[in-house]
From TrEMBL:
<dbReference type="InterPro" id="IPR002397">
    <property type="entry name" value="Cyt_P450_B"/>
</dbReference>
<dbReference type="Pfam" id="PF00067">
    <property type="entry name" value="p450"/>
</dbReference>
<dbReference type="InterPro" id="IPR001128">
    <property type="entry name" value="Cyt_P450"/>
</dbReference>
<comment type="similarity">
    <text>Belongs to the cytochrome P450 family.</text>
</comment>
<feature type="region of interest" description="Disordered">
    <location>
        <begin position="73"/>
        <end position="93"/>
    </location>
</feature>
<dbReference type="InterPro" id="IPR036396">
    <property type="entry name" value="Cyt_P450_sf"/>
</dbReference>
<feature type="compositionally biased region" description="Low complexity">
    <location>
        <begin position="1"/>
        <end position="10"/>
    </location>
</feature>
<protein>
    <submittedName>
        <fullName>Cytochrome P450</fullName>
    </submittedName>
</protein>
Length: 428
Protein backbone atom coordinates (compact mmCIF):
# COMPACT_ATOMS: atom_id res chain seq x y z
CA UNK A 1 0.00 0.00 0.00
CA UNK A 2 1.05 3.51 -0.71
CA UNK A 3 3.97 2.35 -2.87
CA UNK A 4 5.68 5.05 -4.85
CA UNK A 5 4.57 7.73 -2.40
CA UNK A 6 6.82 10.08 -0.57
CA UNK A 7 8.08 8.55 2.64
CA UNK A 8 7.78 10.34 5.95
CA UNK A 9 10.12 13.29 6.24
CA UNK A 10 10.55 13.92 2.53
CA UNK A 11 8.34 16.01 0.33
CA UNK A 12 7.20 15.31 -3.22
CA UNK A 13 10.03 15.10 -5.77
CA UNK A 14 11.98 18.32 -6.13
CA UNK A 15 10.49 20.03 -3.11
CA UNK A 16 11.84 20.92 0.29
CA UNK A 17 11.47 18.09 2.79
CA UNK A 18 8.23 17.97 4.72
CA UNK A 19 8.47 19.34 8.24
CA UNK A 20 9.06 16.82 10.98
CA UNK A 21 5.88 15.60 12.59
CA UNK A 22 5.03 13.89 15.86
CA UNK A 23 7.87 15.58 17.73
CA UNK A 24 7.59 17.63 20.90
CA UNK A 25 7.58 20.90 18.90
CA UNK A 26 4.89 19.50 16.64
CA UNK A 27 2.63 18.63 19.61
CA UNK A 28 3.10 22.20 20.90
CA UNK A 29 2.11 23.80 17.60
CA UNK A 30 1.27 21.48 14.70
CA UNK A 31 -0.33 24.21 12.58
CA UNK A 32 2.75 25.38 10.58
CA UNK A 33 3.46 21.76 9.56
CA UNK A 34 -0.16 21.29 8.46
CA UNK A 35 0.04 24.54 6.49
CA UNK A 36 3.03 23.14 4.61
CA UNK A 37 1.24 19.88 3.89
CA UNK A 38 -1.94 21.60 2.65
CA UNK A 39 0.16 23.51 0.19
CA UNK A 40 2.76 20.96 -0.94
CA UNK A 41 1.44 17.48 -0.20
CA UNK A 42 -2.22 17.73 0.77
CA UNK A 43 -2.79 13.98 0.83
CA UNK A 44 0.40 12.80 2.45
CA UNK A 45 1.77 9.29 3.05
CA UNK A 46 3.56 9.19 6.38
CA UNK A 47 4.98 6.84 8.97
CA UNK A 48 3.35 7.27 12.36
CA UNK A 49 5.25 6.93 15.63
CA UNK A 50 3.77 3.42 16.01
CA UNK A 51 5.45 2.42 12.73
CA UNK A 52 2.13 2.13 10.87
CA UNK A 53 1.96 4.05 7.60
CA UNK A 54 -1.12 6.03 6.64
CA UNK A 55 -2.44 8.80 4.43
CA UNK A 56 -3.01 12.20 6.06
CA UNK A 57 -5.79 14.23 4.41
CA UNK A 58 -5.17 17.90 5.24
CA UNK A 59 -7.38 20.16 3.06
CA UNK A 60 -10.93 21.07 4.09
CA UNK A 61 -12.67 20.00 0.87
CA UNK A 62 -10.83 16.65 0.74
CA UNK A 63 -11.39 16.07 4.46
CA UNK A 64 -15.11 16.62 4.16
CA UNK A 65 -15.33 14.30 1.18
CA UNK A 66 -13.29 11.59 2.91
CA UNK A 67 -15.38 11.73 6.10
CA UNK A 68 -18.52 11.03 4.09
CA UNK A 69 -17.00 8.48 1.68
CA UNK A 70 -18.56 5.05 2.23
CA UNK A 71 -15.64 3.39 0.45
CA UNK A 72 -13.62 4.22 3.55
CA UNK A 73 -14.49 1.69 6.22
CA UNK A 74 -14.20 2.12 9.98
CA UNK A 75 -13.66 -1.60 10.44
CA UNK A 76 -9.97 -2.34 11.14
CA UNK A 77 -10.37 -5.72 9.43
CA UNK A 78 -10.00 -3.78 6.16
CA UNK A 79 -6.47 -2.70 7.06
CA UNK A 80 -3.99 -4.26 4.67
CA UNK A 81 -1.21 -4.50 7.25
CA UNK A 82 1.92 -6.60 6.79
CA UNK A 83 1.53 -10.08 8.31
CA UNK A 84 4.34 -9.51 10.83
CA UNK A 85 2.48 -6.50 12.22
CA UNK A 86 -0.90 -8.23 12.57
CA UNK A 87 -2.39 -7.36 15.91
CA UNK A 88 0.52 -5.14 16.89
CA UNK A 89 -0.17 -1.84 15.18
CA UNK A 90 -1.84 -0.19 18.15
CA UNK A 91 -4.91 0.61 16.06
CA UNK A 92 -7.81 0.41 18.52
CA UNK A 93 -10.21 -2.38 17.79
CA UNK A 94 -7.92 -4.48 15.62
CA UNK A 95 -8.04 -7.20 18.26
CA UNK A 96 -11.73 -7.70 18.68
CA UNK A 97 -12.39 -7.00 22.32
CA UNK A 98 -16.14 -6.77 22.90
CA UNK A 99 -16.04 -3.17 24.04
CA UNK A 100 -14.30 -2.23 20.81
CA UNK A 101 -17.22 -3.25 18.65
CA UNK A 102 -18.69 0.21 18.94
CA UNK A 103 -19.98 2.99 16.67
CA UNK A 104 -16.55 4.23 15.66
CA UNK A 105 -15.34 0.79 14.54
CA UNK A 106 -18.29 -0.38 12.45
CA UNK A 107 -20.00 0.40 9.12
CA UNK A 108 -23.60 0.30 7.90
CA UNK A 109 -25.84 -1.61 8.24
CA UNK A 110 -24.66 -2.40 11.81
CA UNK A 111 -23.74 1.22 12.42
CA UNK A 112 -27.15 2.42 11.23
CA UNK A 113 -28.95 -0.01 13.56
CA UNK A 114 -26.87 0.85 16.65
CA UNK A 115 -26.91 4.59 16.01
CA UNK A 116 -30.69 4.55 15.61
CA UNK A 117 -31.10 2.70 18.89
CA UNK A 118 -28.76 4.95 20.88
CA UNK A 119 -30.37 8.06 19.38
CA UNK A 120 -33.67 6.97 20.92
CA UNK A 121 -32.13 7.02 24.39
CA UNK A 122 -29.58 9.84 24.06
CA UNK A 123 -31.73 12.66 22.72
CA UNK A 124 -31.18 16.43 22.68
CA UNK A 125 -33.92 16.54 25.33
CA UNK A 126 -31.98 14.17 27.63
CA UNK A 127 -29.10 16.60 27.33
CA UNK A 128 -31.17 19.77 27.84
CA UNK A 129 -32.70 18.31 31.01
CA UNK A 130 -29.21 17.64 32.26
CA UNK A 131 -28.20 21.35 32.16
CA UNK A 132 -28.86 22.13 35.86
CA UNK A 133 -26.73 19.17 36.94
CA UNK A 134 -23.83 20.31 34.71
CA UNK A 135 -24.07 23.80 36.22
CA UNK A 136 -24.04 22.36 39.74
CA UNK A 137 -20.99 20.22 38.96
CA UNK A 138 -19.20 23.19 37.40
CA UNK A 139 -19.82 25.34 40.47
CA UNK A 140 -18.82 22.58 42.87
CA UNK A 141 -15.51 22.04 41.08
CA UNK A 142 -14.75 25.79 41.05
CA UNK A 143 -15.63 25.89 44.77
CA UNK A 144 -12.78 23.42 45.26
CA UNK A 145 -10.12 25.99 44.33
CA UNK A 146 -11.84 29.42 44.33
CA UNK A 147 -10.40 30.48 47.71
CA UNK A 148 -6.86 29.48 46.78
CA UNK A 149 -6.19 32.04 44.05
CA UNK A 150 -4.48 29.45 41.85
CA UNK A 151 -5.29 26.09 40.32
CA UNK A 152 -4.41 23.59 37.65
CA UNK A 153 -7.49 23.84 35.47
CA UNK A 154 -6.86 20.51 33.75
CA UNK A 155 -6.66 18.34 36.88
CA UNK A 156 -9.08 20.24 39.07
CA UNK A 157 -11.67 21.24 36.52
CA UNK A 158 -11.52 20.09 32.88
CA UNK A 159 -10.67 16.48 33.81
CA UNK A 160 -13.29 15.71 36.49
CA UNK A 161 -16.18 17.67 34.93
CA UNK A 162 -16.92 15.43 31.92
CA UNK A 163 -16.27 12.17 33.75
CA UNK A 164 -18.73 12.99 36.54
CA UNK A 165 -21.19 14.38 34.00
CA UNK A 166 -21.17 11.26 31.82
CA UNK A 167 -21.26 8.95 34.86
CA UNK A 168 -24.32 10.82 36.14
CA UNK A 169 -25.97 10.69 32.76
CA UNK A 170 -25.33 6.96 32.38
CA UNK A 171 -26.56 6.25 35.90
CA UNK A 172 -23.26 5.21 37.52
CA UNK A 173 -23.91 5.67 41.28
CA UNK A 174 -21.95 8.54 42.86
CA UNK A 175 -19.97 6.22 45.15
CA UNK A 176 -18.53 4.40 42.11
CA UNK A 177 -17.68 7.48 40.06
CA UNK A 178 -14.17 7.89 41.47
CA UNK A 179 -13.30 4.41 40.18
CA UNK A 180 -14.33 5.60 36.73
CA UNK A 181 -12.22 8.70 37.19
CA UNK A 182 -9.18 6.51 37.95
CA UNK A 183 -9.77 4.16 35.02
CA UNK A 184 -10.31 7.06 32.65
CA UNK A 185 -7.21 8.80 34.07
CA UNK A 186 -5.18 5.70 33.29
CA UNK A 187 -6.55 5.64 29.74
CA UNK A 188 -5.86 9.33 29.10
CA UNK A 189 -2.35 9.20 30.59
CA UNK A 190 -1.24 6.06 28.81
CA UNK A 191 -3.55 6.03 25.80
CA UNK A 192 -0.70 5.91 23.30
CA UNK A 193 1.89 4.34 25.56
CA UNK A 194 2.30 1.18 27.61
CA UNK A 195 -0.77 -0.95 27.09
CA UNK A 196 -0.75 -3.01 30.32
CA UNK A 197 -2.44 -0.53 32.66
CA UNK A 198 -4.83 0.58 29.97
CA UNK A 199 -5.87 -3.00 29.20
CA UNK A 200 -6.50 -3.61 32.89
CA UNK A 201 -8.57 -0.43 33.17
CA UNK A 202 -10.63 -1.34 30.10
CA UNK A 203 -11.23 -4.80 31.57
CA UNK A 204 -12.35 -3.40 34.91
CA UNK A 205 -14.62 -0.89 33.20
CA UNK A 206 -16.17 -3.62 31.07
CA UNK A 207 -16.83 -5.83 34.09
CA UNK A 208 -18.36 -2.93 35.94
CA UNK A 209 -20.55 -1.83 33.00
CA UNK A 210 -21.87 -5.35 32.37
CA UNK A 211 -22.80 -5.69 36.03
CA UNK A 212 -24.43 -2.26 36.06
CA UNK A 213 -26.44 -3.15 32.95
CA UNK A 214 -27.58 -6.30 34.74
CA UNK A 215 -28.69 -4.28 37.75
CA UNK A 216 -30.49 -1.68 35.62
CA UNK A 217 -32.32 -4.41 33.79
CA UNK A 218 -33.71 -5.62 37.12
CA UNK A 219 -34.20 -2.16 38.47
CA UNK A 220 -34.53 0.46 35.70
CA UNK A 221 -34.23 4.17 36.38
CA UNK A 222 -34.46 7.30 34.25
CA UNK A 223 -30.76 7.17 33.35
CA UNK A 224 -29.13 6.57 29.98
CA UNK A 225 -28.15 2.94 30.64
CA UNK A 226 -31.78 2.10 31.45
CA UNK A 227 -32.72 4.02 28.30
CA UNK A 228 -30.25 1.98 26.22
CA UNK A 229 -31.72 -1.26 27.59
CA UNK A 230 -35.27 -0.05 26.90
CA UNK A 231 -34.57 1.39 23.44
CA UNK A 232 -36.13 -0.59 20.64
CA UNK A 233 -36.40 -0.11 16.93
CA UNK A 234 -38.80 -2.29 14.95
CA UNK A 235 -38.69 -4.80 17.79
CA UNK A 236 -34.88 -4.81 17.92
CA UNK A 237 -32.93 -4.15 21.11
CA UNK A 238 -29.28 -3.78 22.03
CA UNK A 239 -27.69 -6.95 23.37
CA UNK A 240 -25.93 -6.65 26.74
CA UNK A 241 -22.54 -6.54 25.05
CA UNK A 242 -23.74 -3.88 22.62
CA UNK A 243 -25.14 -1.81 25.47
CA UNK A 244 -21.83 -2.13 27.37
CA UNK A 245 -19.84 -1.16 24.25
CA UNK A 246 -22.20 1.80 23.76
CA UNK A 247 -21.77 2.99 27.35
CA UNK A 248 -18.02 2.58 26.91
CA UNK A 249 -17.84 4.64 23.71
CA UNK A 250 -20.01 7.36 25.26
CA UNK A 251 -17.54 7.58 28.12
CA UNK A 252 -14.49 7.25 25.98
CA UNK A 253 -15.54 9.57 23.15
CA UNK A 254 -17.02 12.09 25.54
CA UNK A 255 -14.27 12.29 28.06
CA UNK A 256 -10.84 13.36 26.78
CA UNK A 257 -12.53 15.40 24.04
CA UNK A 258 -14.34 17.52 26.61
CA UNK A 259 -11.24 17.80 28.82
CA UNK A 260 -9.40 19.25 25.84
CA UNK A 261 -12.25 21.42 24.63
CA UNK A 262 -12.26 23.16 28.01
CA UNK A 263 -8.45 23.15 28.34
CA UNK A 264 -7.61 24.31 24.80
CA UNK A 265 -10.57 26.71 24.90
CA UNK A 266 -9.59 28.47 28.14
CA UNK A 267 -5.98 28.59 26.98
CA UNK A 268 -6.95 30.18 23.65
CA UNK A 269 -9.02 32.79 25.49
CA UNK A 270 -6.17 33.61 27.87
CA UNK A 271 -3.79 33.98 24.91
CA UNK A 272 -6.24 36.27 23.07
CA UNK A 273 -7.19 38.90 25.67
CA UNK A 274 -9.24 41.00 23.21
CA UNK A 275 -11.50 38.02 22.49
CA UNK A 276 -11.73 37.08 26.14
CA UNK A 277 -12.76 40.66 27.09
CA UNK A 278 -15.29 40.67 24.29
CA UNK A 279 -16.82 37.46 25.63
CA UNK A 280 -16.76 38.65 29.22
CA UNK A 281 -18.51 41.89 28.27
CA UNK A 282 -21.15 40.04 26.29
CA UNK A 283 -21.83 37.58 29.15
CA UNK A 284 -22.02 40.45 31.65
CA UNK A 285 -24.68 42.04 29.42
CA UNK A 286 -26.70 38.83 29.68
CA UNK A 287 -26.17 37.84 26.03
CA UNK A 288 -25.44 34.28 24.93
CA UNK A 289 -24.89 34.71 21.16
CA UNK A 290 -21.16 35.23 21.43
CA UNK A 291 -20.83 32.25 23.77
CA UNK A 292 -22.65 30.11 21.16
CA UNK A 293 -20.52 31.17 18.20
CA UNK A 294 -17.44 31.36 20.45
CA UNK A 295 -17.54 27.69 21.46
CA UNK A 296 -17.78 26.73 17.76
CA UNK A 297 -14.84 29.00 16.97
CA UNK A 298 -12.75 27.48 19.76
CA UNK A 299 -13.49 24.06 18.26
CA UNK A 300 -12.35 25.26 14.85
CA UNK A 301 -9.33 27.17 16.11
CA UNK A 302 -7.84 24.51 18.38
CA UNK A 303 -10.29 21.64 18.70
CA UNK A 304 -9.63 18.58 20.84
CA UNK A 305 -9.73 16.04 17.99
CA UNK A 306 -6.65 16.64 15.86
CA UNK A 307 -7.16 13.62 13.60
CA UNK A 308 -10.46 11.85 13.00
CA UNK A 309 -10.39 8.17 13.94
CA UNK A 310 -9.00 5.47 11.60
CA UNK A 311 -10.52 4.77 8.20
CA UNK A 312 -9.46 2.08 5.71
CA UNK A 313 -9.93 2.00 1.93
CA UNK A 314 -12.11 -0.97 0.98
CA UNK A 315 -11.26 -0.46 -2.70
CA UNK A 316 -9.00 1.82 -4.76
CA UNK A 317 -10.13 5.45 -4.72
CA UNK A 318 -8.85 8.98 -5.28
CA UNK A 319 -8.79 11.77 -2.72
CA UNK A 320 -7.63 15.24 -3.79
CA UNK A 321 -6.10 13.74 -6.95
CA UNK A 322 -4.11 11.17 -4.98
CA UNK A 323 -4.68 7.47 -5.68
CA UNK A 324 -5.31 5.43 -2.55
CA UNK A 325 -4.91 1.63 -2.66
CA UNK A 326 -7.37 -0.82 -1.12
CA UNK A 327 -6.32 -1.59 2.45
CA UNK A 328 -4.53 1.74 3.01
CA UNK A 329 -5.30 3.54 6.29
CA UNK A 330 -6.59 7.11 5.88
CA UNK A 331 -6.46 9.70 8.67
CA UNK A 332 -8.43 12.91 8.17
CA UNK A 333 -6.63 15.80 9.85
CA UNK A 334 -9.50 17.86 11.27
CA UNK A 335 -7.10 20.36 12.86
CA UNK A 336 -5.63 21.11 9.44
CA UNK A 337 -8.93 21.21 7.55
CA UNK A 338 -10.26 23.74 10.05
CA UNK A 339 -7.32 26.09 9.38
CA UNK A 340 -7.62 25.83 5.58
CA UNK A 341 -7.51 29.37 4.11
CA UNK A 342 -9.54 28.12 1.11
CA UNK A 343 -12.47 27.64 3.48
CA UNK A 344 -11.95 30.08 6.37
CA UNK A 345 -10.78 33.67 5.88
CA UNK A 346 -7.88 34.47 8.27
CA UNK A 347 -7.90 30.90 9.59
CA UNK A 348 -5.18 31.51 12.19
CA UNK A 349 -7.15 34.34 13.81
CA UNK A 350 -9.47 33.54 16.74
CA UNK A 351 -12.73 35.41 16.10
CA UNK A 352 -15.41 34.35 18.60
CA UNK A 353 -18.10 36.00 16.50
CA UNK A 354 -17.13 34.11 13.32
CA UNK A 355 -20.15 33.29 11.16
CA UNK A 356 -20.19 30.73 8.32
CA UNK A 357 -18.17 28.45 10.55
CA UNK A 358 -18.91 24.94 9.31
CA UNK A 359 -15.88 23.45 11.02
CA UNK A 360 -15.14 19.73 11.07
CA UNK A 361 -14.30 19.56 14.79
CA UNK A 362 -17.22 17.16 15.38
CA UNK A 363 -16.57 15.24 12.19
CA UNK A 364 -19.00 14.92 9.29
CA UNK A 365 -21.24 12.26 7.76
CA UNK A 366 -22.70 9.22 9.48
CA UNK A 367 -20.12 9.24 12.31
CA UNK A 368 -20.78 12.91 13.16
CA UNK A 369 -20.35 13.36 16.90
CA UNK A 370 -23.29 11.88 18.76
CA UNK A 371 -22.38 13.85 21.88
CA UNK A 372 -22.14 17.32 20.29
CA UNK A 373 -25.13 18.71 22.25
CA UNK A 374 -23.61 17.52 25.55
CA UNK A 375 -20.16 18.82 24.59
CA UNK A 376 -21.63 22.24 23.81
CA UNK A 377 -23.55 22.29 27.07
CA UNK A 378 -20.47 21.42 29.14
CA UNK A 379 -18.15 23.81 27.31
CA UNK A 380 -20.56 26.73 27.63
CA UNK A 381 -21.20 26.10 31.32
CA UNK A 382 -17.47 25.73 31.97
CA UNK A 383 -16.35 28.87 30.12
CA UNK A 384 -19.19 31.14 31.21
CA UNK A 385 -18.92 30.12 34.88
CA UNK A 386 -15.14 30.42 35.01
CA UNK A 387 -15.20 33.90 33.47
CA UNK A 388 -18.05 35.04 35.73
CA UNK A 389 -16.68 33.70 39.01
CA UNK A 390 -12.98 34.31 38.35
CA UNK A 391 -13.12 37.47 36.23
CA UNK A 392 -9.37 38.19 36.38
CA UNK A 393 -8.35 34.63 35.49
CA UNK A 394 -4.83 34.61 34.02
CA UNK A 395 -2.16 32.09 32.99
CA UNK A 396 0.02 30.98 35.89
CA UNK A 397 2.93 29.82 33.73
CA UNK A 398 4.97 30.89 30.76
CA UNK A 399 3.30 29.41 27.64
CA UNK A 400 6.73 28.07 26.61
CA UNK A 401 6.74 25.89 29.73
CA UNK A 402 3.37 24.27 29.07
CA UNK A 403 3.40 20.69 27.85
CA UNK A 404 0.96 19.32 25.30
CA UNK A 405 -0.31 15.79 25.19
CA UNK A 406 0.01 14.85 21.54
CA UNK A 407 -1.58 11.42 21.28
CA UNK A 408 -2.33 10.57 17.68
CA UNK A 409 -6.02 11.44 17.69
CA UNK A 410 -6.38 14.06 20.43
CA UNK A 411 -4.37 17.10 21.33
CA UNK A 412 -4.54 18.96 24.63
CA UNK A 413 -2.60 20.46 27.52
CA UNK A 414 -1.19 18.24 30.27
CA UNK A 415 -1.60 21.03 32.82
CA UNK A 416 -3.08 24.52 32.72
CA UNK A 417 -1.85 26.53 35.71
CA UNK A 418 -3.94 29.66 36.34
CA UNK A 419 -4.06 32.48 38.90
CA UNK A 420 -6.88 34.78 39.98
CA UNK A 421 -8.05 36.87 42.91
CA UNK A 422 -9.30 34.44 45.57
CA UNK A 423 -13.04 34.44 45.93
CA UNK A 424 -15.83 32.77 47.95
CA UNK A 425 -17.03 29.24 47.40
CA UNK A 426 -20.74 29.77 46.91
CA UNK A 427 -20.72 31.29 43.49
CA UNK A 428 -22.50 34.63 43.13
C1 LIG B 1 -17.83 10.94 17.20
C2 LIG B 1 -15.58 15.07 18.31
C3 LIG B 1 -17.70 15.13 22.65
C4 LIG B 1 -19.73 10.87 21.67
C5 LIG B 1 -17.05 12.07 17.14
C6 LIG B 1 -16.24 12.44 16.00
C7 LIG B 1 -15.62 13.59 16.31
C8 LIG B 1 -16.02 13.95 17.65
C9 LIG B 1 -14.65 14.37 15.44
C10 LIG B 1 -16.16 11.70 14.65
C11 LIG B 1 -14.91 10.86 14.57
C12 LIG B 1 -14.70 10.24 13.22
O1 LIG B 1 -15.55 10.33 12.31
O2 LIG B 1 -13.64 9.62 13.05
C13 LIG B 1 -15.98 15.44 19.57
C14 LIG B 1 -15.57 16.67 20.21
C15 LIG B 1 -16.16 16.71 21.41
C16 LIG B 1 -16.95 15.48 21.55
C17 LIG B 1 -14.66 17.73 19.61
C18 LIG B 1 -15.98 17.85 22.35
C19 LIG B 1 -16.11 17.88 23.55
C20 LIG B 1 -18.47 14.01 22.76
C21 LIG B 1 -19.32 13.67 23.88
C22 LIG B 1 -19.87 12.46 23.60
C23 LIG B 1 -19.39 12.04 22.30
C24 LIG B 1 -19.50 14.54 25.12
C25 LIG B 1 -20.83 11.61 24.39
C26 LIG B 1 -21.10 11.66 25.60
C27 LIG B 1 -19.36 10.52 20.39
C28 LIG B 1 -19.73 9.27 19.77
C29 LIG B 1 -19.19 9.28 18.48
C30 LIG B 1 -18.48 10.55 18.34
C31 LIG B 1 -20.56 8.15 20.40
C32 LIG B 1 -19.29 8.18 17.44
C33 LIG B 1 -20.46 8.45 16.55
C34 LIG B 1 -20.60 7.45 15.42
O3 LIG B 1 -19.63 6.78 15.05
O4 LIG B 1 -21.72 7.33 14.90
N1 LIG B 1 -16.89 13.00 18.12
N2 LIG B 1 -16.80 14.75 20.41
N3 LIG B 1 -18.56 13.00 21.81
N4 LIG B 1 -18.62 11.27 19.51
FE1 LIG B 1 -17.80 13.06 19.93
Amino acid sequence: PGSGCPVSGSGPAGQAPAPEMFTWEFATDPYPAYGWLREHSPVHWTKLPSGVEAWLVTRYADAKQALADQRLSKNPAHHDEPAHAKGKTGIPGERKADLMTHLLNIDPPDHTRLRRLVSKAFTPRTVAEFAPRVQELTDRLIDGFAERGEADLIHEFAFPLPIYAICDLLGVPREDQDDFRDWAGMMIRHGGGPRGGVARSVKKMRGYLLELIHRKRENPGDDLISGLIRASDHGEHLTENEAAAMAFILLFAGFETTVNLIGNGVYALLRNPDQRERLQASLAAGETDLLDTGVEELLRYDGPVELATWRFATRPLTIGGQDIAAGDPVLVVLASADRDPDRFPDPDVLDLGRRDNQHLGYGHGIHYCLGAPLARLEAKAALATLLRRLPDLRLGADPADLRWRGGLIMRGLRTLPVEFTPTGTDGP
